[in-house]
Amino acid sequence: MSGFIKVVGLGPGNGALITPQVQAALDLATDIVGYIPYVARVTPRDGLVLHASDNRVELDRAHNALEMARAGKKVVIVSSGDPGVFAMASALFEALEAMPSYQDMAIEILPGITAMLAASAALGAPLGHDFCAINLSDNLKPFALIEKRLRLAAQADFAMAFYNPRSASRPEGFTRVLDILREECSPHQLIMFARNVSRPDQTLLTVNLQEARGEMADMRTLVLLGNSQTRRVGPFVYTPRFSTDGA
Amino acid sequence: MSGFIKVVGLGPGNGALITPQVQAALDLATDIVGYIPYVARVTPRDGLVLHASDNRVELDRAHNALEMARAGKKVVIVSSGDPGVFAMASALFEALEAMPSYQDMAIEILPGITAMLAASAALGAPLGHDFCAINLSDNLKPFALIEKRLRLAAQADFAMAFYNPRSASRPEGFTRVLDILREECSPHQLIMFARNVSRPDQTLLTVNLQEARGEMADMRTLVLLGNSQTRRVGPFVYTPRFSTDGA
Questions:
Q1: A with B: how many residue pairs have Cβ under 8 Å apart?
Q2: Is the ipTM of this complex over 0.95?
Q3: Biggest alpha carbon–alpha carbon distance for chain B
Q4: Per residue in A72-99, pLDDT tens?
Q5: Structural domains of chain B sorted by starting position, each given as residue range(s) with its CATH number in brackets
Q6: Cross-chain Cβ contact A131/B133 below 8 Å
């Protein structure tokens, strides 16, 4: 038996952003495991079994992958973006923690282009100085913790990347996020909405924080907030490398 | 004339982490511009001119690239990792800001695998929850600002990625960083040192914060600090997706 699990990042959508390392893993796989729209990005071929499952069953999916690998399958778990950023790698390790007899399994995580890097590149260089990444999905943590992090990150003058800003089930959450940011930041600070980033239907929108509205984001949108120095140059938005600002 | 500038990320070192999009740009280039060790990673060929320059001349390099593109050259500026994370994209826009007549130039930023994503993948999934990225190079900002950000990020319980932790010219800086983190965090919090990440001579070291010493990092090291929940599972380190911690 020479089963393995590789957890790979497919990048944000454009096939030209899939690394050769990830492509080689896909070419070697016997079984592909993942959320339905990500599995759909893998080209079917003879001998390759596709196991697509719904959202919010990450632990079942990880458990299933471990069982298949134990049985000798070459299992590739696919994530969008990077598997280590709000994606399947942590879910696999959560499952592994509960299954100590599987901890000698051949497991590898292969990085990918996460959405904030593709969005930043499409816009210019808004993440060119210190920044943070916050998952706004509040089924993973209490909103009070999100609020605390937003306020501290604003006080640190980090640029910020927001994943999963808005879902149909809690459309008001992102509006509250904007209200908190407006309390902590300048109304002129730039905020950017990158939807379907790297895909043919990509759209980019940059506004001031005072003009931002909750409806500008949905679950296909990556939101970036500039820091106090972020500005426009020609058609681009960038954050300077230098800061002379003290504490 | 159909000159252009593409600012591309070569990833952290392993050629299998260069995206096909970036490879296509390299194949199309007439001129490659960048820091000596990054230009050395581009395969020479007939018709391709390599312009390698030293560190800390980023603005001259950007100015030169703009002049060549204006003259019709197909210029590719190479960065290690991702060009938008503590790299050449911001330097190019700084140069562009001072040269308004060049702002109609065809400029594109092509993302790459930044070191923290490759380090995180090699270690497991320590960035699986909210995190921040801080450049510790204090020739870009006063140390007081670094200190402020470290304290606020620790209070937010972000996992943290530290770029440029330690240079020969200021070896004591990273020791001060560790002292500040020990004031704000649990002594048992995990800190990870990934040196030459993704290369054949990659080394990984994970210790508790109380055991960490300045000499564990040099300028080829990417340092990751876990959050309060980050833990080991088998040979890996990961941060759970969930947090039940309130504010």
A1: 246
A2: yes
A3: 61
A4: 999 999 999 999 999 999 999 999 999 9
A5: 4-113 (3.40.1010.10), 116-238 (3.30.950.10)
A6: yes
